[in-house]
Amino acid sequence: MRHFDIEQLRTLVAVADGGSVTAGAARVFLSQSAASEQLRKLEERAGQVLLLRGKAGVQPTPAGERLLAHARRLLALSEEAWRDLQGVPLAGELRLGVTDYFRPGELAALLARLSVQHPRVRLRVMVRKSSEVEAAHARGEIDLGVSMAVAVPGRRAAKGEVLLRTEPLRWMAAAGYRMPAGEPLRLLALPDTCALHQFAVGLLARRSKAHTVVLEASGVAGLQSALVAGLGVACLNESALAPGLAPLAAPHGLPALPVARFHLLAPRAGEAEFVGRARELLITQLAG
């Protein structure tokens, strides 16, 4: 049977969160040598290097990040199953902030499912730009936050953040849209305080691609509507593809795009036990 050992996965998560084998071993009550041996066996089982070790600690490889996302979901499900059998329901008010780009066509259904499965959890949700979600979380105005970052070389996730999912970025427009020949690219975006707006404009400028921002929408839904109307082109994550939209067909002459990464923000000091349990639950509900 093909499977991973859950205790080895637990050690992987502990080491990644702790930033080193020594710190991670202490979290799961192992010696450093025992934790290293578990990681060695896990990498052998995976057939890939999962962690890069250096003077500054450990850093997950791309394969390690993918396995970490699975491991967190499996561990959270195991914890929730135990609590369910012990009759310990999740109950309390949860203030959640989510970037507007996160699975826009599915988010409402995901939250509705959460409410049905955990009726004693009172959700208060705000959907905003990533920078606003991060600022609200830092001020203590929300308990948990989901933000997006463009994966660029040299940028690493903050310590304690949990990778929920990665998605390709695409140049999108109305189905069948054709860019007018000889004219600047008609770019649609969220306001210029949006990180994806800044990235797209900066990328086009660096590649000397003539462009003009013809519309700034207040949210992703408005941006999708403007795209469907044929007003231009936008840089969006793949799950923002909506009916009436399509990725631009090659060759379109626009720069290649990286992926977007969605993270659950790192816990603040003194996080309540209820919020910690909700965090693990959200990892299973929102990742994919």
Would you give an account of this structure?
The protein has helices spanning 6-18, 21-27, 32-46, 62-85, 107-117, 130-138, 195-206, 220-228, 273-286, and strands at 51-54, 57-60, 92-99, 121-128, 144-150, 162-174, 185-189, 211-216, 234-237, 245-247, 259-264. It is an alpha/beta fold. It has 3 domains: 1-88, Orthogonal Bundle (Arc Repressor Mutant, subunit A); 90-163 and 261-286, D-Maltodextrin-Binding Protein, domain 2, CATH 3.40.190; 168-258, 3-Layer(aba) Sandwich (D-Maltodextrin-Binding Protein, domain 2), CATH 3.40.190. Strands 3, 4, 5, 6, 9, 10 and 11 form a 7-stranded mixed beta sheet that branches. A two-stranded antiparallel ribbon has the order 1-2. The protein has a two-stranded parallel ribbon with strand order 7-8. The chain is globular, with a radius of gyration of 21 Å. The two termini are 23 Å apart.
How does the major sheet shape up? 7 strands, mixed
Q: Which word captures the global form?
A: globular
Number of strands: 11
What structural category characterises the helix and strand content? alpha/beta
What is CATH's topology name of the largest domain? D-Maltodextrin-Binding Protein, domain 2
Mean pLDDT figure:
88
Count up the domains.
3
Distance between the termini: 23 Å
| Highest-level CATH class of the largest domain | Alpha Beta
Corresponding CATH architecture of the largest domain:
3-Layer(aba) Sandwich
CATH superfamily of the largest domain: Periplasmic binding protein-like II
- Fraction of helical residues: 25-40%
Low-confidence stretches: none
Query: What is the helix/strand order?
Result: HHHEEHEHEHEEEHEHEEEH
Q: How many DSSP H or I helices?
A: 9
Radius of gyration: 21 Å
Strand content: 15-25%
